[in-house]
Specification:
Length: 450
């Protein structure tokens, strides 16, 4: 297949898909132009890659699935997109998401809910809902997502695909619209571990344009694939194997742990004593950073501007009132509150202390274990509409994905079976976490699991 044929096949599949709403938009002509220029000897050789709507693509809309940014077009490429193009990949389409990456269901989008291709009345997870749904529905070969508290891994788990959040600093955040800058990472979502490795290879590396980008060598990720995992020490945290997990999830995860054992891995018990505090700490830190990051959306510099206003203050407030959806407003209010004088010490600075303790727990655990495993989420994908009823419950379901973001560690979700629910077959994700810059271990183990 030529790059142009691949682009056309993908674009036809996107047009034929009437179910998932995975794409907010896609530009066949732009992709065909890129295909004509693609170097077929390069690693991605003209493969179209779907890109989440919060990662800038030169000349294309970058709306973060928000009404506020509906008229906005990115004037430059994110570094990850630039590298993707350099490796011969073709960014195709803007995938649906929870507005500004806030959410875990794909329902908080100004462009309609995304549906799980495995069961269309269930959520695909989020916030990278469209990237996950597109890869699972095969309307994308692979995709880029972003992960602040689980937004690559959780939808990957719910949709039955592979999703990897790299080490903080591994992939440049330049051109990613910031949600919580100290937690955000761009990463690959793919049908196979091998594809995830190829995509990660393409987008990794130091970038002077992102001050938090790490000046670390990028290993050959594909070289890690196919190696055996004999003697690999697999950490089993008691805190992740509780009766609070859905029975089907527990069973699928236990089976995968046995599979690791039969491949020669050694199981070691570890403890993550602050696991019960991570959700609270994360939502304080993430909302605090979001309230600051989103202050730039004032109607003057970007996107939509409120009309017929009296003065600047009304321009700011009406633009934000009309432009942001309810979840984004909830987070800005919460973030402003925890940062306000009088509450800062009680909330924000305590959350930062918890964050240090979580990082220390992992450092301790990695003295005994090479990787740490468990479920990606405590339960399979809920039905559309269910999570709208209870925000706190939705936040709590991030319990297993948040720790890697707080500690800046790489983590992957790989498919590990499914559970039957109401006639639907709902995929389960198996999560593995590794020490900083050891994505190779995650890919090697994920590949070994097949
Ligand atoms: N579900 C989490 C949240 O709503 C994670 C989001 C993300 O990783 N972008 O904040």
């Amino acid at each position: 297949l030529t790059p142009a044929e691949l682009v056309n096949l993908t674009a036809d599949a996107i047009e034929a898909d009437r179910t998932t709403n995975a794409y907010i938009s896609f530009d066949r002509e732009a992709a065909l132009r890129a295909a004509a220029a693609a170097d077929v000897s390069s690693p991605l050789a003209g493969v179209p890659i779907a890109v989440k709507d919060n990662i800038s693509i030169l000349g294309q809309p970058t709306r973060c699935a928000s009404r506020l940014l509906s008229p906005y077009t990115a004037p430059y490429d994110a570094t990850s997109v630039r590298l993707l193009k350099k490796a011969g990949g073709i960014p195709l389409g803007r995938t649906n998401m929870d507005e500004f990456a806030m959410g875990a269901s794909g329902e908080n989008s100004a462009y309609g809910v995304t549906r799980n291709p495995n069961a269309s009345d269930h959520i695909p997870g989020g916030s990278s809902s469209g990237s996950a749904a597109a890869v699972a529905a095969r309307t994308a070969i692979a995709a880029l997502g972003s992960d602040t508290g689980g937004s690559i891994r959780q939808p990957a788990g719910h949709c039955g695909i592979v999703g990897l959040k790299p080490t903080y600093g591994r992939v440049s955040r330049y051109g990613l619209v910031a949600f919580a800058s100290s937690l955000d990472q761009i990463g690959p979502m793919a049908q196979t571990v091998e594809d995830a490795a190829i995509l990660l290879q393409a987008i990794s590396g130091h970038d002077p344009k992102d001050s938090t980008s790490a000046d670390q060598p990028v290993p050959d990720f594909e070289a890690a694939l196919g190696k055996d995992i004999k003697g690999l020490k697999v950490g089993i945290p008691a805190e992740y194997f509780t009766s609070g997990n859905h029975a089907g999830v527990s069973e699928a995860v236990r089976n995968t742990v046995s599979q690791l054992e039969s491949l020669g891995a050694e199981l070691v018990e570890i403890r993550l004593p602050h696991a019960d505090a991570v959700v609270a700490a994360y939502y304080i830190i993430a909302c605090a950073e979001a309230s600051s990051n989103l202050s730039r959306f004032d109607g003057v510099r970007y996107g939509q501007r409120a009309q017929d206003v009296n003065g600047l203050m009304e321009l700011f407030s009406r633009t934000r009132e009309e432009g942001f959806g309810p979840e984004v407003k909830r987070r800005i209010i919460l973030g402003t509150y925890v940062l306000s004088s009088g509450y800062y010490d009680a909330y924000y600075s305590r959350a930062q202390k918890v964050r240090s303790l979580v990082a220390r727990d992992f450092a301790e655990a990695f003295k005994k274990a090479d990787i740490i495993v468990g479920p990606t989420s405590p339960a399979p994908a809920p039905k559309i509409g269910d999570s709208a009823l209870d925000h706190l419950q939705t936040y709590l379901a991030d319990i297993y994905t948040i720790p890697a973001n707080l500690a800046g560690l790489p983590a992957i979700s790989v498919p590990c079976g499914s559970v039957k629910e109401g006639g639907a077959e709902l995929p389960i994700g198996f999560q593995m976490t590794a020490p900083h810059f050891r994505e190779d271990l995650l890919l090697k183990t994920g590949f070994a699991l097949g």
